[in-house]
Amino acid sequence: MSADRGRQEGWLLRLWLRNALVWAALLGLLVLSMFLAYIPMGPVTVTSGVAIAVIKSSLVLVFFMELIRSRALIRLAALAGLVFVGVMFALTLADVLTRSGKI
Q1: pTM for the full predicted model
Q2: Main subcellular localization, coarse class (predicted)?
């Protein structure tokens, strides 16, 4: 019985360590995005912010939501959510591009 408990505690320790590392990476990316937001780089500022946001959301999807090990239906629901967000961004972009005058 103590061997089972030792394996369970080892698994739990690895889980906490993995989550702590992902949390530290997310905090590091947060600091990086805050730092890059105040550097005048022109259009690259927005591009770098979006790239960092994609990396952060990928970390959350893969490690915290555990989409790698989830069933196909759960992954399909997550993909449907991403498609919906993409359509909303495309519609917003189309609206902005069709307006006359300064943005």
Answers
A1: 0.74
A2: membrane
